[in-house]
Amino acid sequence: MKRIAWIVLGWSALLATTQAASFDCEKASNHVEKLICTDDELSQLDERMAGVYETALLDENIARTAKQTQKQWLKKRNSCSDAACVKSAYEKRMREIFPDNKPRAVLAPRKFQASLDSKDWVVIFTNIKIDEERAVALRNINNQDHPDRQKYNEVGLRDSSSKVRGFAASFYYTELDKLTPTLLKIIASDPSQQVRFSAARNLSCQFTCNGAEYTDEDIRALEDNFPLIESSLRNTETEQMGNLAMEKELLHMLDFVWCDMTTDSQNKLAKLISSDLTIKLTGGSQEIIIPELNFLAKKILNENSGNSCDL
Questions:
Q1: Is the pLDDT of residue 110 over 90?
Q2: Residues 76 and 92 sit within 8 Å (Cβ to Cβ)
Q3: Which residues lie closer than 8 Å to 144 by C-beta, 6 or more apart?
Q4: Helix (H, G, I), strand (E, B) or coil at 239
Q5: Residue 288 scores a pLDDT above 80
Q6: I need a labelling partner for 141 at 20 to 30 A (CA). Which of 8, 31, 102, 218 fits?
Q7: How far apart are CA 304 and CA 302, in angstroms?
Q8: What is the chain's percent helix, strand, coil content, to nearest 5?
Q9: For residues 191 and 166, is the Cβ–Cβ distance under 8 A?
């Protein structure tokens, strides 16, 4: 069975255990608070409600109303006689505070962020227009294994924000022979240096990380897209002279799979890295030869010359 390439390169924390209530259960003062402390679902809802309320206080547009209505809501909640009533009270209150279900995820305390599930993050990703929040949302959609995360990564790859594209390039996954050309196009053409590096690190890890498995078909996908590899290593545009992380990732991957490529592909690659690899600073036109990058390329070439693949 063909391996599905998926390397998680971001947060991996998913709350798998019951959250404690937002208050000290040893000081529970009424029937409802005691009920919350003994019911896992209500305890989680209470923690989440506390985060929603904290977030509301950070938003000047709704903070005053949230404060004015909080005591009245607590009184109503505390009048409940069973768990179903308490649950309904929490759900209605959260919809009341954020009727469009658009909490400010980045401004919110981390405790609140952790209380959101992948469906909440999808709402934020698809509705919020603030780049930082949508980037955080996409990261958590992936970290919390949303079943449609592939769809949202594909949307993220086309986003106008480099922050969102960067996370999408890190998490994007599919069958490796299809993943390879997609990531190589990003590496060769995305205007953001960080996005190109994220894509290069993702692709490299599919071949080189511990436990990685690839087939001859996956190698052919690399060889068939050699022009994109060449574009990525020759005269690439960079914002910072000293940042060659993307190029190093690509060279490391090519060194690792060298002996799995056909002789024709090895010769093409040897010709490429035996010439001077150059970069251009963003906005400039001058080609700059980088000794560090070319030293690494020549080292790889020397190590793979002759009959090294037969050893």
A1: no
A2: no
A3: 14, 117, 118, 121
A4: coil
A5: no
A6: 218
A7: 5
A8: 65, 5, 30
A9: no
